[in-house]
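S2.1 Query sequence (Glycosyl transferase family 1 domain-containing protein)
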Amino acid sequence: MIIAVDGNEANVKEKVGVSVYTFKLLQYFHKKADKNLRFLVFLKYNPASDLPLETDFYKYSVIRGDFLWSQTFLPLDLYKRKALGQKIDIFFSPAHYIPRLTPIPTIVTIHDLSFFYYPQEFLKKDLFKLKNWTRRAVEKAKKIIAVSNTTKKDIVRFYDVEEEKIEVILNGYEKKIKNQKSKIKSIDKKYILFVGTLQPRKNLDTLIDAFTLFRQNNPEFKLIIAGKKGWLYDYIFKKVEGLKLKKDVIFKGFVSDQELTVLYQNAFCFVLPSLYEGFGIPVLEAMSFGCPVISSFASSLPEVGGEACLYFDPKDPLELKEKLTLLAENRKLRSDLIKKGGQRIRLFSWQKCAKSTLDLLSNQANSDLTG
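Output structure tokens follow.
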């Protein structure tokens, strides 16, 4: 059996979100590759040094070309291979888009449909592409993987796809490397932590407003925001400057795994104020390091956090301020959240996610062979 994979999301330097997802799956596929189960990973550029090395049963195919790569260069190569008698049993796209025309049965993963809820965050051309190319993918794909039940419900709602076509396979998580020296400067441990890409739906407005209220009685606290710049983020920096909080709100930018480990381990708590998340991996990351979590009660986040989080209305900074105050004043609550978080993370793993994904790919490929 030969499984083809679009590996481009993993072939980047700074891996977050979908890139981490694709990278973890490729690592697992690499371990499972043998003479009976071969993998062919398609890329636009040469594989980065951290991608799994090629073996006799795990290969990369680099197809040059940027413009509409998944709709032109990739399918042309797939049709050429078929004409030459090079059989591929199934094609897997880990991120929303698949070739519109392809001679191979396809499975696609849909991570979230935030563009339906917050269209104002996207450029018009990107929004058109997201809505329409995702529609083609879910209609054409043999099976759809949704990373949460929330995402599955959204796919059914917005694209009128039958539920039986969608398989929910939850994302995984893993502990970062512990107890390593970090390059980040030593800071007071009384800080609130946010980790994520800077973009409007992360709802940093509410977090900053709540932090401002919280600091009135807790002036020793800082707010650390770790994550790369996404889009429409300028207003966040202007807001901090306008509130005269430049010394109290620290923007770290993209941080390494080692730096992120230190931040989680030493934080007073982690806050995810998002208006929408397809899954919310940072919730599990924080829990894995014994960092209490306060999360918005939105989209998939309660599904991920369960009873191991405190929750708040993402549009109510006063409620978030109250949860921060409660956590600061109640040591037992903080201890209970840490304990529950440690239990919660046992339900999730990249190993489990990757195994379930490979099982689905193999079963669908076999059904075509026997059908």
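Residues 14 and 46 are 16 Å apart (CA to CA). The first helix runs from residue 18 to 32.
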